[in-house]
Design brief:
The protein is of the alpha/beta class. The chain contains eleven helices and 13 strands. The strands form two sheets. A nine-stranded mixed β-sheet has the order 5-4-1-8-9-10-11-12-13, with helices on both faces. It has a four-stranded mixed β-sheet with strand order 3-2-6-7. The longest helix has 15 residues.
């Protein structure tokens, strides 16, 4: 395989999904419908989404020495992803996610991180030259924050474009953010990073400006069915999402990020790249599953 233009560092999980009429309240038991298992994990989802859309992708991750890990690697290879940087943890199992999806397509998720939590900065050091030579690095927050900080620092040192999807939501140190080229929070994540309750376009713009002050040059706040707010070169743009009937939003953000880095690797203009990502995410919510919902390039064209 040629040198990857896109490196994704992050989590790999097996998703165990139950469909139900509604999401359970605390203490409530809901009799659900269909159960199925699917490959997931934010890092893996984004790597698969990027590969399906034509990206030359290498995935750096850690799995357990179990059937879930073996199956994940086999699926990545089938998608054309370079798996030579996937490590096996001697002690921890592969990650697992328990997901409930209601009849409106909304979901709730609990993750047992397993080997994902064992992915360390020391592990990434083995791939220093590989990371620094990539054109784009994409990371998320289902691995330890210290590992993410080290990864984005390596990417910044190598002058590659560093994209951070700050999910699941948590606070991040400004030092980490200064090494990020593009950040892609949703409304809740933008609120967690800035302390602003992001509920509409005005509050989203306020949050984006604060993130810019923290050192991130380009901010993309995804806003669900409304689309995405882009702050790039000190200019705001609201990129609308195609209107679709959603049945499962589980990996919409991951598909968005995978599509975004593919468009950027192809040197599309930023607003065009965001529009491409919105289109891919819109297709994904019309399907069940995480990686299974990621569209192929032909479907966007």
């Amino acid at each position: 395989m040629n040198k990857p233009s896109i490196i994704v560092i992050g989590s790999s999980n097996t998703d165990m999904v139950i469909q139900s009429a509604h999401l359970p309240e605390p203490g409530e038991t809901v009799l659900g419908g269909v159960f199925f298992m699917n490959a997931g994990g934010k890092g893996a989802n984004q790597a698969v989404a990027a590969a399906r859309l034509g990206g030359n992708v290498s995935f750096i991750a850690k799995i357990g020495k179990d059937i879930f890990g073996k199956q994940a690697v086999r699926l990545f290879k089938n998608e054309g992803i370079d798996t030579s940087s996937i490590m096996k943890d001697r002690d921890l199992p592969s990650g697992i996610a328990l997901i409930t999806v209601d009849d409106k397509g909304e979901n709730c998720i609990v993750v047992a991180s397993g080997a994902n939590a064992g992915l360390s900065a020391r592990n990434l050091k083995k791939f220093k030259e590989k990371i620094e030579s990539a054109s784009i690095l994409l990371m998320q927050l289902e691995t330890p924050v210290d590992t993410v900080a080290y990864g984005v620092a390596l990417g910044a040192a190598g002058n590659c474009r560093v994209v951070l999807n700050p999910a699941p939501a948590c606070t991040l140190p400004d030092k980490l953010l200064r090494n990020v080229s593009i950040i892609t929070p949703n409304e809740r994540e933008a609120g967690m990073l800035t302390g602003i309750d992001v509920t509409d376009l005005n509050s989203a713009e306020h949050a984006a400006k604060l993130l810019q002050l923290k050192g991130v040059s380009t901010i993309i706040i995804t806003m669900g069915a409304k689309g995405a707010l882009l702050l790039h070169e000190n200019k705001f743009s609201m990129i609308e999402s195609p209107k679709v009937e959603a049945i499962d939003t589980t990996a919409a953000g991951d598909v968005f990020n995978g599509a975004l880095v593919v468009a950027l690797a192809e040197e599309k203009e930023m607003d065009e790249a965001v529009r491409f990502a919105c289109k891919a995410a819109a297709i994904s919510v019309t399907r069940l599953g995480a990686q299974a919902s990621a569209p192929f390039r032909s479907e966007l064209e």
